[in-house]
Automatic annotation (TrEMBL), chain A:
Family: Belongs to the binding-protein-dependent transport system permease family. LivHM subfamily.
Pfam families with a match to the protein in the record: BPD_transp_2
Subcellular localization(s) per the UniProt record: Cell membrane
Membrane topology: Multi-pass membrane protein
Keywords: Amino-acid transport, Cell inner membrane, Cell membrane, Membrane, Transmembrane, Transmembrane helix, Transport
GO cellular component: plasma membrane
BP-aspect Gene Ontology terms: amino acid transport
Name of the molecule in the record: Branched-chain amino acid ABC transporter permease
Superkingdom: Archaea
Record field: transmembrane: 6-31, 43-64, 70-88, 100-118, 152-169, 198-219, 231-258, 270-293
The UniProt record lists the keyword Cell inner membrane: yes
Length: 306, 402, 291
């Protein structure tokens, strides 16, 4: 495979990681804890889309090689992931009387419950959307890049979602309040911002993006109950790389980690005996290395490390 | 509860104290443990549970107690969130297995005592490596990094076949006492016994049973040594600094404590204890595989510690029983045919729900620590009001709830 | 605080000079009391700290002379707490130096700075869950043998002796502060004011040369505040140097001399309470900062 193809794959995978990282980072800064259930929220999104697609799969014309039904399923996946997260937030996290570390531990429990329930319903095997696998785009083959329209669909959809989020954060009242709350919750509260509502919206957006990431991950690879938990660590690596709490840092971190992940085969190509089975491990090692030299991430400001 | 400063009060408060003196919670814990033991005993005498398997389960309880001690020394004492319990456990197991197993690609046939030291050393080295970048940072970084690290270790063990035998695992691991005088031949030397308590379902004790009995003895020794060590070091200025770090790390720094060094010590100590549990497991199960590194194993131990009461050793012991109850309970449920649940998700659900319930309703755990971390003999000597003279801080159940 | 003044001391609070004399003979830190006032225990020179473009500390310089109670005041947002964090090593400065007892501690970690004799308290101390008051007190003494893991296994007797002495010191100091009865209570049960007293008492166990107090009477009722002031004055007479941030003007003007006024990150005025009170720039700063 050519380097260009690795880069193309990297772009696709990055799109997924970016979606997941933004959500994780948003919740990290506003709800103030590392949400270990974020990966399984992705899984929830993927399975919800899978079920929906079973009903509406044949729907409508094709767009970027995908039936219109897929986009309906995507919307349902996003909605269900957001709904599940909001319910969890309302009835569990909101009622908790523990510090952020206690919340972190609780979120592990939540992750297990999500995954166990999915596993009861769907078993632990890999499943797929069952969309016909496309031939690579002919135009790109001479460049050594075999990329399907589905891959393009993932990139385009992710780009639209990220652009939408950017617009929301920069140009809307809600977005400004979200940034203010993330920056300093107590100041936001005394400034008359209804922090409860902002928090709720943060969960909706964060989990919704995670759900979208999960659906795309399912399209790109396969769907399984462990998919989210397995990718969670890569997403954390991206968030830490970008600097916890920084949405734009998360985008950058997600992009880099996704690229690095898919560029791993180059190591073997140039004779370093580290195979693709270590793609995720490399992400963690980079994360640890970043922590060592820049605890606040590549996009984060400096400050006390403690 | 009644407080006597006797050295074993912590250990036997749940057993030797009069039942009526205990708080309702302690009574509940006692009833639970007794009930579980009774259930196991019932299974034993009615033939539902083979005597060898019974002893195996007791060994596993000991193993989880050890693991809980290890995590307690990190999370309970210092507030370090270690999500790589399974990695340290697995390293201990693989450390000894690689030296002793028949099909080890590297060595094999070496004395398990050496394996023990290698397993513990590996864990200590790994703990330092992961501690250096993360222990200077906020607590949640360690959580994330350690979970990632556990995955890295699992991937290495799975993929580096020429060292670890990969997914096939290592088999043919000898018992821990192989090569020892007397103990190595103890199981063969013991006579076969047939005990019939309930007519028609005899308990047959043969060589495997004695092997398992030996293992229970081994884990008992490991648990006892660890318990004595932890008790000595925890009720001390050292343990006090750890508890201060847990409450307010900046405060400890401001008072001149090198918190990074203390956290590192606590992290390494706990990790070595987890590896000790791994060494025991390898010689109990006689087979290790990459599956032993699964994250669920980490969270079984978390359940044990947070449910038992972070920072409390007797809580950790209680937690060990709870884990076995989950594991065996789900196995039992799975055996009922009309409930067509897979055992995997059932356990996952049990672990998840328990974590949520504990954190939601009793974050301090069932048996929170009750001791002042002051060198016990100094407390006896010093000319200061004794614990009995004024109200103790945790004299009432849940006294340290915030 | 040394072993020589053992637990028998009947009422040390009524006899403020005694511990000082004792300490001197054992070479304790309080020998500082007899040095002349020109001796500088803490020197801050040209400190600068910015947070993402916002200048929190702007070329701040001042000295704390040994044996004084120096007040650090200034309007909200003047950068007092940032300055404390810079001095005690919790923040890294962008420029400038901090000297404690002649040693450059600019780049030192907080615990190193504490070892040099500078101890600080926090504005809002977190309550130590699961600890009794005396347990929390016993974290104060520096370089305890029992803080070394190995010593716990090999030097049990030394640990016991030290623990006994520290326990008795702790009890004595608590009694000097008239809160001896709280020793075995849970630290979480204390009122805010009691907690501040315990913090001060604990800091004394660390035998500081200079003690930084961050708003010692914020949220403390007037009776306890008076008690705190008396204790600070008493300890100062024994030779402890204080640097105190305080918003309560009456409290700080009655206690401290000199007063350092901080405004927008740098030192505006330095002088006696009367001089500061009379200075128009100070009034302007407070009025301007109050917006």
């Amino acid at each position: 495979m050519s380097v260009l193809e690795y880069l193309a794959n990297g772009l696709v995978f990055s799109s997924i990681i970016v979606l997941a990282s933004i959500g994780l980072s948003l919740v990290y800064s506003i709800a103030d804890f590392a949400n270990f259930a974020h990966g399984d929220t992705m899984t929830v999104g993927a399975y919800s889309a899978l079920v929906t697609f079973g009903f509406v799969g044949g729907l409508g014309a094709r767009f970027l090689g995908l039936p219109l039904g897929f986009f309906v399923a995507l919307a349902v996946g996003v909605a269900v992931a957001a709904l599940v997260a909001v319910i969890t937030q309302r009835f569990l996290y909101d009622a908790m009387d523990v510090d952020s570390i206690g919340m972190l531990i609780t979120s592990i429990g939540v992750a297990f419950v999500y995954r166990a329930l999915i596993q009861f319903q769907f078993g632990s095997d890999f499943v797929e959307f069952g969309i016909q696998v496309l031939r690579p785009i002919e135009f790109l083959i001479p460049f050594g890049v075999r990329m399907t329209l589905h891959d393009v669909a993932i990139i385009v959809s992710a780009a639209i979602l990220v652009a939408g989020l950017h617009t929301l954060l920069q140009y809307t009242d809600l977005g400004r309040k979200m940034r203010a709350t993330a920056d300093n919750p107590s100041l936001a509260r005394v400034s008359g911002i209804r922090v409860d509502r902002i928090t709720l919206w943060t969960w909706v957006i964060g989990a919704g993006l995670a759900g979208a990431g999960g659906v795309f991950l399912g399209l790109y690879n396969q769907i399984s109950p462990r998919m989210g938990f397995n990718i969670l660590l890569v997403v954390f690596a991206a968030v830490i790389l970008g600097g916890i709490g920084s949405v734009y840092g998360a985008m950058l971190g997600g992009f880099l980690i996704g690229m690095i992940n898919q560029l791993t085969p180059i190591l073997t190509d140039v004779g370093i005996p580290i195979g693709i089975e270590y793609a995720n491990a490399i992400a963690f090692v980079i994360m640890v290395a970043v922590l060592l030299v820049r605890p606040n991430g590549i996009a984060g400001g400096q400050g006390a490390g403690t | 509860m009644s407080e006597s400063p006797g050295p074993d009060a912590d250990a036997d408060a749940a057993s030797a104290g009069r039942f009526g003196d205990l708080t309702p919670t302690e009574q509940g814990v006692l009833v639970f443990v007794a009930g579980l033991l009774a259930l196991l005993a019932l299974g034993l005498v009615t033939g539902g549970l083979g005597p060898t398997y019974f002893m195996y389960l007791i060994g596993l309880v000991g193993m989880y107690v050890l693991l809980s001690f290890g995590l307690n020394a990190q999370w309970g004492y210092t507030g370090l969130i270690n999500f790589s319990v399974a990695a340290f456990f697995g390293l201990g197991a693989y450390g000894t297995a690689i030296l002793t197993a028949d099909n080890s690609p590297i060595a094999g046939g070496i004395s398990p005592v050496l394996g023990l030291f290698v397993g513990l050393l590996l864990a200590a080295v790994l703990a330092v490596i992961i501690g250096i970048p993360t222990l200077r940072l906020r607590a949640d970084y360690l959580a994330i990094a350690s979970l990632g690290l556990a995955e890295v270790v699992r991937l290495i063990v799975l993929n580096e076949r020429e060292y670890t035998n990969g997914s096939a695992g290592l088999r043919g691991i000898p018992g821990f006492f192989e090569g020892w005088p007397v103990l190595s031949t103890f199981p063969q030397a013991m006579p076969g016994l047939r005990i019939e308590i309930v007519p028609g379902s005899p308990i047959v004790l043969q060589q495997p049973f004695y092997q398992a009995l030996l293992n229970v003895g081994l884990v008992f020794v490991f648990v006892a040594i660890t318990f004595l060590l932890l008790r000595r070091v925890h009720r001390s200025p050292w343990g006090r600094v750890l508890r201060t770090i847990r409450g307010d790390e900046d405060l400890a720094e401001a008072l001149g404590k090198n918190t990074y060094a203390f956290k590192m010590q606590s992290f390494v100590l706990g990790s070595v204890i987890m590896a000790l549990a791994g060494v025991f497991y390898a010689h109990l199960n006689l087979f290790v595989s990459p599956g032993d590194f699964e994250p669920i194993n980490t969270f079984y131990v978390w359940i044990a510690v947070i449910l038992g009461g972070s920072g409390s050793n007797r809580g950790a012991m209680f937690g060990g029983f709870v884990v076995i109850a989950i594991r065996e309970g789900t196995r039992f449920l799975n055996g009922i045919e009309f409930i067509a649940f897979d055992i995997g998700p059932l356990r996952l659900l049990a672990v998840g729900v328990l974590i949520i319930l504990v954190m939601r309703f009793r974050p301090e755990g069932v048996l929170p620590p009750q001791r002042e971390l002051i060198w016990p003999s100094a407390l006896d000597d010093a000319d200061v009001p004794g614990p009995g003279e004024t109200q103790r801080p945790h004299a009432t159940d849940g006294g340290e709830q915030s | 605080m040394s072993d020589t003044e053992s637990a028998g001391d009947p009422d040390p609070a009524a006899d403020g000079a005694a511990p000082d004399a004792d300490a001197e003979s054992t070479g304790s830190v309080y020998e500082g009391a007899n040095l002349d006032k020109e001796d500088v225990v803490l020197e801050v020179d040209g400190l600068v700290k910015t947070f993402g473009g916002l200048v929190a500390t702007d070329d701040a310089s001042f000295q704390v002379e040994r044996g004084t109670v120096t007040g650090l005041i200034g309007p909200n947002g003047a950068g007092k707490s940032t300055l404390f964090n810079l001095i005690s090593g919790f923040y890294e400065e962008d420029a400038g130096t901090v000297t404690v007892n002649g040693a450059d501690v600019t780049d030192a970690t907080p615990h190193r700075i504490a070892e040099h004799g500078l101890i600080r308290t926090f504005q809002t101390p977190r309550k130590l869950e699961g600890m009794t008051v005396r347990e929390a007190m016993l974290v104060g003494p520096q370089s305890q043998t029992g803080e070394s893991f190995l010593s716990l296994l090999t030097a049990g007797d030394t640990v016991r002796e030290e623990e006994r002495a520290n326990l008795e010191d702790a009890q004595r100091i608590l009694e000097e502060f008239e809160i001896g009865h709280l020793a075995t209570q849970a630290a979480t049960d204390l009122s805010g004011g009691q907690m501040k007293l315990v913090e001060l008492a604990r800091a004394m166990l660390a035998e500081p040369e200079v003690l930084l107090l961050d708003e010692p009477v914020a949220g403390v009722n007037p009776t306890l505040a008076n008690k705190l002031r008396d204790q600070i004055a008493r300890l100062n007479e024994q030779g402890v140097t204080f640097l105190i941030i305080e918003h309560d003007m009456e409290f700080i003007m009655n206690l401290a001399d000199p007063i350092v006024v901080l405004d927008r990150g740098s030192v505006l005025v330095e002088g006696t309470p009367d001089a500061v009170r009379a200075d128009d720039r100070v009034i302007d700063a407070y009025l301007g900062g109050g917006e």
